[in-house]
Amino acid sequence: MVFLLKMKPFKKAIVFKIEYLQRFMQQTTNQLIAGCKKGDKKSQLQLYTNYCDAMFTIACRYLRNKEDAKDAMQESFIKAFGKINNYESTYTIGVWLKRIVINQCLDVLKKQKLIFEDLDDVEYEFEEESDWYFNDAITKKDVLKAIESLTVKYKLVVQLYLIEGYDHEEISQILQLPIKTSRTHLRRGRLQLQELLNETKVKTNKEIIQQK
Question: Would you tell me which of 97, 126, 138, 150 could form a disulfide with 155, CB atoms 3.0–4.6 Å apart?
């Protein structure tokens, strides 16, 4: 009991320190944003340094070529600094930057003519939320790898929905397609994903058997 009593102030100190650091980091970010709005180069460089790795990771989800992803990420920051005065604190700066990066990647894909199909050819189908449960043997790494192999138009919707957390209304705005089409692409992408994951599971089981 004495030990627990001694620990309580220690825990409170940790919580206080974490909250202090969070407030400090937010203040620092706000200062950087304010500097960027004034065109301060040092603030721009620091904001870029703080977020470039995370934004590059996001770009790599959409563009398989790392050089294309790097170019898209850098172009996104140029665009972001160009319209930083439009940024409002309704969203965090990270969320705002992510949206710009995704849009830039989609522009690259459009130029490469990898998207989209004729919307008149789409047969509308809808997904069930419960269908997103995967077998316990399937890892997150398996899922991410399988998503990379999806048909591009389905991959985009699956990534935006499953990984980025956007809803169909937001996906519709980002991809500039009807909500019904977004739902249909998600359902078809899920079916492709399940097939790929089933193949992964079979291969894994076969490898285990061969090792015995």
Answer: 150
